[in-house]
């Protein structure tokens, strides 16, 4: 089987950087992208192609970047939407601009990048689009509303896209990791702002302390997480023979949180079922 061609966004650190190394180690080709290519120039040494790409660019610019990327190896088989960041803050105190910036990268940028490559995949009647989501899509976190909402938006956008693309022969994979030991919490945009409103101060301080304590002590092994993603995409190792997942939680914390959310939802549904159904004509 000939090597597959991957394009990965946000490869300067974290899952993106590890994905580049893992995919190349498996014998495939990679186009590594970042807003600042100086931060990923060293990836040429391990065999990756390098492309400047900012997911918040205009659709026209992203379309041109897609054409440039396709010209490198003649095709793109797998697109990994990994670029993103975390925005902390109490809903009442975070501004429209902060929320827009969060969605502009995590949601609109992801979808615009996907749109840029879909015509190519449709022409081939093949391809895989990977979305790196988060377990945060399943349960709202106080002082993390913008991030949780952005990941929930991607969850359902990817779910809808999957149903649109399946008849064409294109697959989507929604990965929803728990807390992994990446640099995500070190980013300037991930600062844990303490509320200036007394009513919110205690909860914002508790969340800030939780994530400060987590930083550097996250339970998830990024290398192992990346290996599992590539296993699923390529149908290798423990993923061989398994049905394609509608979504892929990664990490024991993600599994526990999602299971608890589902159990609580079913419990509430049962408790309120007759009340809810009483509105039918």
TrEMBL record:
Coiled coil: none annotated. GO terms for molecular function: oxidoreductase activity. CDD domains: 17beta-HSD-like_SDR_c. InterPro entries: NAD(P)-bd_dom_sf, SDR_fam, SDR_oxidoreductase. Pfam families: adh_short (PF00106). Keywords: Oxidoreductase. The keyword DNA-binding does not apply. Belongs to the short-chain dehydrogenases/reductases (SDR) family. This is Oxidoreductase YusZ.
């Amino acid at each position: 089987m000939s090597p597959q061609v991957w394009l990965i966004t946000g490869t300067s650190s974290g899952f993106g950087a590890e994905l580049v190394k893992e995919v190349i180690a498996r014998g495939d080709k990679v186009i590594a992208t970042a807003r600042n290519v100086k931060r990923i120039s060293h990836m040429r040494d391990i065999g990756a192609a390098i492309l400047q790409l900012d997911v918040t660019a205009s659709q026209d610019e992203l379309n041109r970047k897609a054409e440039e990327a396709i010209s490198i190896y003649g095709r793109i088989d797998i697109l990994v939407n990994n670029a993103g960041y975390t925005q902390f803050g109490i809903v009442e105190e975070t501004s429209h601009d902060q929320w827009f910036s969060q969605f502009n990268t995590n949601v609109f940028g992801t979808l615009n990048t996907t749109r840029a490559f879909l015509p190519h995949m449709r022409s081939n009647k093949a391809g895989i689009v990977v979305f790196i989501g988060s377990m945060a899509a399943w349960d709202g976190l106080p002082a993390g509303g913008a991030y949780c909402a952005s990941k929930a938006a991607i969850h359902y956008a990817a779910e809808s896209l999957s149903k649109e693309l399946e008849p064409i022969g294109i697959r989507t994979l929604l990965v929803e990791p728990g807390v992994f030991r990446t640099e995500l919490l070190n980013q300037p945009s991930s600062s844990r702002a303490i509320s200036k409103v007394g009513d919110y101060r205690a909860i914002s301080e508790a969340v800030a302390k939780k994530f400060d304590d987590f930083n550097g002590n996250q339970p998830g092994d990024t290398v192992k997480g990346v290996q599992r993603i590539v296993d699923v995409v390529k149908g290798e190792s423990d993923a061989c023979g398994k049905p394609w997942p509608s979504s892929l939680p990664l990490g024991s914390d993600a599994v526990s949180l999602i299971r608890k959310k589902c159990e609580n939802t079913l419990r509430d549904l049962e408790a309120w079922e007759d009340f809810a159904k009483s509105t039918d004509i």
